[in-house]
Write a structure and sequence with these properties.
This protein is an alpha/beta fold. The chain folds into 3 domains: 77 residues, Arc Repressor Mutant, subunit A (Orthogonal Bundle); 242 residues, Aspartate Aminotransferase, domain 2; 103 residues, Aspartate Aminotransferase, domain 1. Helices cover 38% and strands 13% of the residues. The protein is built from 15 helices and 14 strands. The strands form 3 sheets. The protein has an 8-stranded mixed β-sheet with strand order 3-10-9-8-7-4-5-6, with helices on both faces. It has a 4-stranded antiparallel β-sheet with strand order 11-12-14-13, with helices on one face. A two-stranded antiparallel ribbon has the order 1-2. Helix 6 runs parallel beside helix 12 and helix 7 crosses helix 11. The longest helix is centred in the last third of the chain and has 28 residues. The radius of gyration is 28 Å and the shape is globular. The two termini are 54 Å apart.
Length: 478
């Protein structure tokens, strides 16, 4: 298969101050690019007319260079089909440290994106994603692109997708909202950053769960907020502690459906207490419902937002945990009185997310695939976590206590007599296993220990047994 490069300006970089003729410079640059593997055998080159226009030289100059390279065996002329790099040449891999021809190295080579490692947190089951269906929907959308689709979209999100999200939330999470209240963002960090920009002034205090999600802390701290860690117990965020530590806080970020990372569901009493605090303090609550769809005992809990009668809760959801993280799409539902404020903030900070991707997600939701996929994943994850928990118990016996909550995408394994959890995590990481230390998720004390382990991508019992055996060896269990 041949390809046509779109630009040669950076590749060729002609120097008119040199005594070397321009056609000879073109020859040398093309020859070097071929020998370095930047141009591969069979790759089609730009036409002489097109390249001459791009370089600002006469067409005859390029034709002379092409003719010389054909004579040297580097290129092959195919008449109306154009000119290609000679297929007879050996295929070369581009040197990782090679800089563009004629340029000094700009820095170290870019590292390839690594494949996810076993037990990596936050990943849905990539092997169970309906790729063929997704490809068909994406191809259909690409074929139907209109001129308007090539322009910037609404920074608040693709209107049909916002409508689909609002409809889904009403049915699945009990949240009644209009499409205008839904803002599509480029992931969880972007949602939190949008909240900070729209609602908070630098230096204002924010309650965060302790332990909690490190990225939320990083985004708010970078935005200039003063983060106040509030301890969590079996009922969720300890609101009374928050009142004592930071009574003037302007925002609280919570994970009430499945506390990240302990897994507790916030009790109804604690939810009502938190809502009462927000109303009295005229503060805001961000409900981070990162994996609320996944509950293995009974139906998913109603969202905190569904209890909000005073318009103090902002609901943050994500497609990364349900579909796949490469989408980099999330959404934020804001109270109706805040719509204009958030619309202004969105216009200032973003051109919006890619319209084509948003349209594909919209089709996936509107045609019923989204709801079916969630149901399928809920059953799949229930089986996979049961298998992993059983293998951990079989391999470690009394040395481990596996904690399974009512929902979520990870479990907590608490080991006894093997060392502290950060040391165990380092040993697991060295063995290629992405187990994370629970104690690292705390900002203040007291800390509890354990390894956080995802089960979503462990497809079979033999795979679970193999990985647990590898973990056992890494933790130096006799």
């Amino acid at each position: 298969m041949t390809t046509t490069p779109t630009s040669y300006a950076a590749l060729l970089q002609l120097d008119r101050a040199q005594a070397t003729p321009l056609y000879r410079q073109i020859c040398e640059r093309f020859r070097a690019a071929i020998e370095q593997g930047l141009l591969q055998p069979g790759e089609r080159l730009a036409s002489a007319r097109s390249l001459a226009g791009e370089l600002g030289v006469a067409r005859g100059t390029v034709e002379l260079a092409y003719a010389e390279l054909v004579g040297q065996g580097y290129l092959e002329a195919r008449g109306q089909a154009g000119t290609v790099v000679s297929p007879a040449l050996p295929r070369r891999r581009p040197a990782r440290s090679a800089a563009p021809v004629g340029k000094a190295p700009a820095g170290p080579p870019l590292a390839p994106v690594p494949m996810p490692r076993p037990f990596q947190l936050g990943l849905p089951a990539l092997d169970a994603f309906p790729r063929k269906l997704w490809t068909r929907l994406a191809a259909r959308r690409a074929r139907s692109l209109a001129l308007a689709d090539l322009h910037y979209g609404d920074p608040a999100g693709h209107a049909p997708l916002r409508e689909a999200i609002a409809a889904h939330l009403l049915v699945a999470r009990g949240i009644a909202c209009g499409p205008a209240q839904v803002f599509v963002t480029a992931g969880h960090r972007a949602s939190i950053a949008l909240v900070a920009r729209a609602l908070l002034a630098p230096g204002e205090r924010v309650w965060l769960e302790d332990p909690g999600f490190p990225q939320t802390h990083e985004v708010l701290q970078d935005a200039g907020q003063r983060v106040v860690p509030i301890p969590v117990d079996e009922e969720g965020l300890r609101v009374a502690q928050g009142r004592r530590r930071a009574p003037d806080a302007r925002l609280a970020v919570v994970t009430p459906s499945h506390q990240a990372p302990l897994g507790y569901a916030m009790s109804m009493a604690r939810r009502l207490e938190l809502l009462a605090w927000a109303q009295t303090a005229r503060a805001w609550i961000v409900e981070d419902d990162y994996d609320g769809e996944y509950r293995y005992a009974g139906h998913p809990l109603p969202a905190l937002k569904s209890l909000d009668r005073q318009e103090r809760v902002l609901y943050a959801g994500t497609f990364s945990k349900v579909l796949y993280p490469g989408l980099a799409l999330a959404y934020l539902v804001v109270p109706a009185p805040l719509v204009e404020r958030f619309a202004r903030a969105a216009r200032v900070t973003s051109n919006g997310c890619p319209q084509l991707i948003q349209a594909v997600v919209c089709d996936f939701m509107r045609e019923g695939h989204f709801a079916r996929h969630i149901k399928k994943m809920r059953l799949l994850y229930a089986r996979r976590r049961t298998v992993l928990a059983a293998e951990l118990q079989r391999a470690f016996g009394d040395a481990v206590r596996v904690e399974l909550r009512s929902g979520g995408m990870h479990l907590i394994a608490r080991f006894h007599g093997l060392g502290d959890d950060q040391t165990l995590s380092q040993r697991a990481q060295a063995a290629g296993l992405s187990c994370r230390a629970l104690s690292e998720r705390y900002q203040a004390g007291p800390r509890t220990e354990g390894l956080l382990m995802s089960f979503t991508n462990i497809a079979t019992q033999p795979e679970a047994r193999r990985l647990v055996a590898k973990l056992r060896a890494a933790l130096a269990v006799n």
